[in-house]
Amino acid sequence: MHPAFSVIFLTTLIGVGQGLFLALYTGQLYSVIQVLPVQDSPGFYGYGSLLAMLFLGAGLFASFFHLGHPERAWRSAAKWRTSWLSREVIVLPAFMGITFIYAMIHITGWNPVLFSLGEVLIVDLSLFIGAIGVVLAFALYVCTAMIYACIKFLQEWATPLTVLNYTLLGMASGFALCTAFAAWVGADLVNFYGGWTIILTVAGFISRGAS
Could you write out the DSSP letters of every residue in 39-91? Predict the structure, then answer.
């Protein structure tokens, strides 16, 4: 299989954006349950999410270079009942929209508390919106990976490990970028993200080797 460079850029850039968002939300969730220190600067999650948007947008832009008729791209969503590509086309903009909302909530500081589960978990708007983003991020990993995994005559790809590989490597890339971002803004989460980057990279190496 010899994919076009635009396909490589598409899958890599979007995968990094998804992984970065998942890393940011993981850090926020861990701080809510008091496993990690709360980040005083709302810009860490907000501007970090905008950075994820930049990668998602770049990946989306790259996708237009392997379309025969870019002006007809909207038609690709019409076969969502049977096509993983159509599902990807639907899930990607939904995920980008949620990521942008998540970023704006943190940047503007408008983050009302929705409900609480005792004294352990206080669910505010950003935590709720972020949870939707997590579901969409994993759904997008599945949709993108299944585009290749469902091609039966490509034995190297037609395996459930393709979905696992794509998810693990995308998350490893995103957590690595989040490690660098945390170091750049001076957040005290570098060791946390760096540790998870190593774990995800090793897991991806094992999974990729198994496939």
Answer: PS-THHHHHHHHHHHHHHHHHHHHHGGG-S-GGGGGGGGTTTTT-HHHHHHHH
The answer to whether the beta carbons of residues 166 and 13 sit under 8 Å apart is no
d(CA 172, CA 177): 9
Say whether pLDDT at 132 is over 90. yes
Q: Phi, psi at residue 123, to the nearest 5°?
A: -95, 110
84 and 146 Cβ atoms separated by less than 8 Å: yes
* pLDDT 10s digits, 158-169: 888 999 999 999
The more confidently predicted of residues 188 and 170 is 170
pLDDT digits (tens, 9 = 90+) for 133-157: 999 999 999 999 998 898 887 777 7
SS3 4: coil
Spatial CB neighbours of 118, under 8 Å, sequence gap ≥ 6: none
Cβ-contact 178, 23 below 8 angstroms: yes
The structure tokens listed for 63 are: 């996708």
Q: Give the DSSP per-residue string, 111-179.
A: --EEEEETTTEEEEHHHHHHHHHHHHHHHHHHHHHHHHHT-TT-TTTSSTHHHHHHHHHHHHHHHHHHH
On whether the CB atoms of residues 76 and 86 are closer than 8 A, the answer is yes
Counting residues of the chain whose pLDDT is more than 90, the rounded percentage is 63
Taking residue 46's Cβ as centre, other Cβ atoms within 10 Å add up to 20
